[in-house]
Each structure stands twice: as structure tokens, then as C-alpha cells.
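User: Predict the full complex structure for these chains.
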Amino acid sequence: MKGKPLASIVSAGLSKFGRLEGLYAREIFAQAAKEAYERCPKLDPKRDIKALFIGHMGESYEHQGHTGATAADWAGLLHIPATRTEAACSSSGAALRAAIFTIASGLCDVVMAGGVEKMTHRSTSEVTEFLAMASDFPFEQWHGITFPGLFALMATAHMHKYGTTEAQLAHVAVKNHYNGSLNPKAHMQKEIALEQALSSRVIAWPLKLFDCSLITDGASCLILTKPEIAKKYTDTPVHIIGSGQASDTIGMYEREDFTSLRAAKLAAKQAYEMAGVKPEEIDVAEVHDCFTIAEIIAYEDLGFCKPGEGGKLAEKGETSLKGRIPVNTSGGLKAKGHPVGATGTAQAYEIYLQLTGQAGKRQVADAEIGLTHNVGGSGATATVHIYKRG
Amino acid sequence: MTEQPTNFTIEQFYKNISQKKLMAGKCLKCGKIHLPPRPLCDKCLSTGFEWVELPQNGKLLTYTIIHVAPPQFQNMTPYAVGIVQLENSVKIPGMIKDVPLDKIKVGMSLKMEFEEPQQPQQTQWPQWPRYYFRPS
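Assistant: Here is the predicted structure of the two-chain assembly.
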């Protein structure tokens, strides 16, 4: 049945995002878990939470894999089943899917989904190398194509095909930094000027420093329940009414079109159909702006505008806080930060706040339906979720 | 030298590159050309292939100039990489060299070149030779 809740978010937690010196990933995850526990006093975590799925992309950062059990332990949840999901930057989008499946199957009534990444203790060059592991090794990494490089290839193609401009890309950065300035947990909480973004140093032309998301430490989590019992834990649950996920070639070069992410379009179609919701009914969205061009392509793939019009949408301010469809009210990956494995459920955290009226200075008035769009790598994985105020 | 039967693998693709040959696997059933070659056709799930040599000329579909690179490429920055559509329409990424960076344009004609294989160092994986593109 269209629009039937699949699972309900009864609580959510987010660590501070930023440069969290001296902390280990598991300790950061504990911060997120603690907030989720405090937010939901009717929940007894040790008694009620029956499984954990956690997104985490890279062992390289801390010489540490096996994140499922580690995170469960540090969240005080031993000895529940705990599993790490990995789908590059969509790792916790995949964790959320796994939690939904687990609840929908009837196996567990209460499940935690989350994500974590600790990145900033590594050099930019090392992080560049680790992030590139989300892309094809033998043909992309081997020939010197970096992760920003892949999105730069999309940007060049988008500019060539549609006339999208570097200034339009910069508008995305300016908007997201403004939103980030209103988010006390964002990594960067200061506004930037258009000229500042345009004159920042080149990372992978046409993408400059301010077109790129941040290397950030952080963790996020959601506590989900079977919809029928959500009100037992909170008066203000958020129902997940649509969930989609799709895959594509690991090598970006193999795809037909470099100006759109097919996996994201397919995931969105699944989620919209399941939810019985149209793009114009979305009140607020968190999209995967790992690079400014990715946000512009997301507008198009999600149906917020026609293909090729994403740049204009940003330029006209239609996706700003007061615009027709506010996007990345949290500051997005651009300003809130992008601790890779944490991003998917951090997006859901923001939508949870928005739909329960807890988003403070960046609250979208009367938001009822929200969407998250979480992309792995250069688009080989995409997860899209649609949420409704309970 | 008698020709040994080969597998349709990425390893073999790069062995061919070391012979300055750009070879792909062609599915005997549906005709799809696979670059890189694969052991299972993703279109028709067949496992029968033949090697076909691909044209080494093509057009640049999109490109970027890398300024921040991982450690092994840091001493080359800034450098250009792009995706090239070969004359038979198969796409392949690679570096673009021997041209001023500001002269690179979408649509320009490029030709594949092969780097001389380096002395193998036993501890390192992989030992794939590199190709690149230059204006034709």
C-alpha cells in the first residue's frame, strides 16, 4: 500500500561534526548514541534495541575494521547482533535500509542504524587516496583520477551539455555554508561569499576548494521501531514511507551519461512510488552534495527540476531555506561536513529534526514530508528515503 | 612463440597493453564489447568471448585537471585526465599528455600512447603498464 510506514524513527543522535582531535571512531559513535538515548527517555536501550547496523567506509583511517561489534560495544549494546554496512559514502544509507528490512521482516521491533568515520587525523593526500578506493582501481585510480576528479568529469560534462557555470556551482556552496552557519553541530559555521568560493584554489578543475565537501569526523544514529509501536516511545515519531536503493557500474567511464546518476534516479523512482509521493510534495530534502555539482545533479535526478536546469535552480535561490524546496538545511556535506560512513543517517537526523520541529534557526515552516538522497562513490550506489511526520 | 590460451581478465588486458595492444573481450553470443574484459557477459550472462583489437583513436568526452593528488601522483600535478570515446564507441579513461592544459577541449581528437614498462619491483602490486592519450 502506498505511503504505508515501513518503520518509524523514534529518536536520533548526532555527534559534533568537525575536527575531533584525540577521539577514536567508536568514541565519537558513543556521543551520537548518547544523544539518541537522552532524546527518548521511554526507551531502555539495553532492553529494547535488538540489532545495530552501522555504516563505515574505511579501515585505513584508524587501522580498524570490524566496526559493527565495536560500535555496539561502545554504544553499550552488547551482545546484540551488530553488522557493518559498506557502500562507500552511502554506507549508512545502506545501514538504514538494513534496519528497515529487519523491522519489516518482523524479526526485530527496535533497531539502531548509524554510521561513523574518523578522518581528520590523516593528511589530505592520504584521505584523497582512501576516498578514491570508492572508485574503480584498475582504470580510474590507476590512471590518476581522484575522487574529486570523478565529479569534476561530471561537472565538465554538465557544463558542456547544459551551459552550467562555475558561478552556479558556487551558489550551492554559498547556500550550504549559510545553512551550516545556523547549525551548531556543523563543521563549518560561517557564511562565505560567492567571490570567495569562485577564487578558492583548484582541487580538480572545474571544482575548487569550496566546491568540495569537508574532511570531517563524526557519527550519527537513528532508533527505528515497528510503526505500530512508535507511539509507545514518543509522541512525535517520523515514519519512513519510501525506501529505494540501486547500483551502477563502479567505473564511471562505462556509463552512458555523465550528467546524471542512474542509480540515484532508480532509487528515487522506487522511493517515490513506494511512498506515493511526487517530487513537488517534498517539503525539505537532504541531498548528497559531496561536491557542488553533485547537488545540482541531485536536483535533476530527484525531479526537483528538469535535466539541465539544476544550476539555475541554485542560482535563483529556489533551494535556499526560504525557497520553494529547501535543500541541505543542515549545511549539507559541504558545510556540516562529510564523515563518509556517518553521512546517510546524518541526513536522516536532519530530516527527523525538521519534521519534528526541532531544527532551530534553520527550521522549515510546517515541514511534513522529507527526503534524503545518499550517493556512494561516483554513483555506483544510491539510497533514497522518504519520510513523513507521524 | 606459440600463443597460449588466455583468460578474459584485467590482468590480461594490461599484459596486452605492455605489448602496446588495446584489446577487449567480445561476447560470442550477444556481441557486446567489454573493456575491461570480463569472465561473464553482463548483458547476456554468456561466458564465451574472443579478443578484438580496439582502435587507438577517439574523441574526448569530458576531462578535469587534477591539482590535489594521492601520494603516488603528487609530483605530476597539475595533470589532465579524461574519458575518451574510441572510434568504435567504447569508452576508456586515461591521462592526457603532450598538450598545454589550457588547450584541452571537449571533443578534441586523441590517440593512445603506451608508456615503456618499468622494471618490476617484486614487492609491489600491481605491475600494470600505463597508457595515456595525446592529441592526434
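The beta strands of chain B are 23-27, 33-34, 49-53, 57-66, 79-86, 91-96, 109-114, 131-135.
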